[in-house]
Structures are given as C-alpha cells and as structure tokens.
Amino acid sequence: xxxxxxxxxxxxxxxxxxxxSVIVPLYNKEQYFERCFNSVVKQxxxxxxxxxxxxxxxxxxxxxxxxxxxxxxxxxxxLLIQHEQNGGLSIARNTGINNSNGEYxxxxxxxxxxTDNCIDSLMILANKYPGVDIVQGNIFQYPRVENxxxxxxxxxxxxxxGNSEIREYYYKRYKRLPVNACNKLIKKKFITQNDLYxxxxxxxxxxxxxxxxxxKLETFAFTDEYCYIRYFVPDSIMMNPxxxxxxxGYLTIAEDILxxxxxxxxxxxxxxxxxxxxxxxxxxxxxxxxSFLMPKCQILLALLAKISxxxxx
Length: 313
What we know:
alpha/beta; 2 domains; 10 helices; Spore Coat Polysaccharide Biosynthesis Protein SpsA, Chain A; 10 strands
C-alpha cells in the first residue's frame, strides 16, 4: 500500500486535535469525484481530516484526486492512500478506519456529496450528547422517489439511549434504523473496540455491519436536517443489472445472522431473515442465470424453518 499525505505545508501541527475523519473510498468515479471533493472542502471547520482511499481505478480518478488536493489551500488535512490492488468498498473503508485520527468517522461515497453545514450539524449533537456512539443525519436522494426509505424526517427522536430501546426502533417501531454506512458520525472507539470493521468483498455490507453494530449500540442521535445528497448514478453497484453479486451478498448476510442470533430478539430476527431469504429465493427463481445460488438459498431456508419450529414448540 502506498500513502501520500498533503497537509498544506507547515500549517498543521501533530498536536492539533482531529475531531472528524471523513473517509472517501474512490474507484472509477472520475465523472463525479470533483463534486464530492468540493462538498468536503466547503466544511467550515479546522478539526477535519479527509482520507481518500484510491482503490486502483482504471480511469483518471487518481490523477483528479492528486490535482484537487495539490490545488487546495484551506484548513482540512488530506491523506491520499493508494491500494496496490483493487479490494472493494469494504476494504477501502477499513483502510480509512485504520489510518484515521479523528474521534468520529464519517463515510462518504465518492459519487455523492454532503451539504455545506453537514459536519457542523452532526457535531452539534455529538457535543450535546457527549460520547454518543452514532449521530445520523437525514438524506436527500436525487432524483426524488416516492416513499424514499432514506428520508427520515419526523421518524426518529433526537436521542435514543439504551440497547433495548435502540433495538425497539430497529426491529419493531420503524422496521429499522438507517442501514447506510454513509451520513453517520460513528465514534471510532465504537468500531475498534467492538471489532466492527466491514466484511470484505461483500455487496450490501452496510446491512451486515448494522446487524452486528446494533448488538453493541447504546446511544444514537438523529437530526432531521439534510446532511447528505445521495445520487442515483448509472454505473453504481446498486444499478448493476446482474443480480448475482446482490443475491450472493444477501445470502452471506443471512448466513452470518443465522449464526449470531440473539435469544431476546429471536422472533424479530427470524422475521427479518424470512423476508430476506424469501426475497432472494424469488430472485433466483426468476432467472436461470442465478440457479447456481439455489442450493445455498434452500439450505438457509431449511435451517431457518428448523429454528422457527423449535421456537414454536
């Protein structure tokens, strides 16, 4: 792995406190990255670093990142890390975590952007509730869609304390807390002390991460304010017409959940798994290209049925 740090000459001292590390995985997003970069440098704070993890792009993303960093003259520290081989989104995020100095981490996808007051808005709550594990902002999705699952205005309280109460919101009251890794201030110690790194080479890694994070989460804060603009882009993973990676990802997540069920939340977790596995079963049956995933899907459905029968007895 090769690292390249840009710190505006002699302006930064090693003793200066970094409150927030913005982590931006970058892979083949030359068309969108400047928009993302500009949204970061608009943050009016001196206690931010931005870690860009370049994951062996085949376009000009690396050249663009170098040019933008070298021409920047503001207060934010930049660290550009170049992977020696492509590892995928989870590995890029984990690289960012391991090289961060901030008390809080903030993940930003390189084809999205944050609002001008994003970090300020989230830090207001982090300061109001000292030591809070996660601070979540609201997301504006573009183009707009009906029943947007990312927009949570008026859905969550400003602060939730206690693991049982948090799980109530995740499993019962509103089906889930926001799954996405992005647009969360996450206390770095919450990740490192609980070994909550992202599972490598997995699609829908956010869903996997949140299931295990929920087991440890004690405090959660939320603001209705829009802090993040999420764009639908044609070359994103989520827009890939080949569903094999998506289905495989959900099956891996289901398998890991089945191996880590919680006694006190079995009913809710089984309901969650039943929905997930039935959906993947339908997707596999819909196209013979995915038939190779049927055996694993059927094994997991059978295991789920066995566990459900034991509980009912």
